[in-house]
Amino acid sequence: MAGQGAEGTEDKTSENETMMQAFEWYVPADHKHWQRLRNAVVGLKATGIDNIWVPPGCKASSSQGNGYDIYDLYDLGEFDQKGSRSTKWGSKDDLMQLIEKANEVGVGIYWDAVLNHKAAADETQKCLAVEVDPNG
Q1: Is 73 within 8 Å of 65 (Cβ atoms)?
Q2: What is the pLDDT of residues 14-52, one digit of tens each?
Q3: 20/37 Cα distance (integer angstroms)
Q4: Which stretches of 1-136 are DSSP H helices?
Q5: Which among 76, 71, 75 has a CA at the least distance from the CA of 94?
Q6: What is the residue-averaged pLDDT of the chain?
Q7: What distance in Å separates the CA atoms of residue 20 and residue 5, rounded to the nearest whole number?
Q8: Choosing a second label site near 4 at 20 to 30 A (CA), which of 28, 34, 109, 134?
């Protein structure tokens, strides 16, 4: 149940937090989205945004990829792969600065993790498998 806040306003309950989707498919591929979000997070908090939902920030099949065409789950914009060091969204350093600023002002970050979209490999790899008889 909400209580009384300053000047008679009612405090919000944790169930009333607001999340904003902080990306869309056609964000410019200029590697500056993490910077834009870092610069906007104070204003977002001031307007009532408690959490932001960010895109998959791992390396995609190209420097313009939205992250749903995963090339490297562990490259958040720090390795020179697929034509760029940064991801479409920015460098790992930019991402870490966004996280730091969001933590500072109390904005949560939800990462869109799509772990099964691994279609951007450089080549086909053979995998050894052992057939198992389910009947023993």
Answers
A1: no
A2: 678 999 999 998 999 999 999 999 999 999 999 999 999
A3: 11
A4: 33-46, 92-105
A5: 76
A6: 87
A7: 24
A8: 109
Strands 19-21 and 51-54: parallel
pTM of the predicted structure, to 2 decimals: 0.78
DSSP three-state, residue 52 = strand
CB 18 within 8 A of CB 6: no
pLDDT tens digit sequence for 53-72: 999 999 988 888 888 888 88
Encode 24-59: b = buried (16+ Cβ within 10 Å), e = exposed.
eeeeebebbbbbbbbebbeebbeeebbbbebbbbbb
Check residue 14 and report its DSSP letter. Answer: G
106: left (phi over 0), alpha (psi -120 to 50) or beta: left
Q: Are the C-beta atoms of 37 and 57 separated by less than 8 Å?
A: no
Sequence-ordered list of residues with C-beta below 8 angstroms from that of 69, at least 6 positions apart, any chain: 60, 61, 62, 117, 119, 120
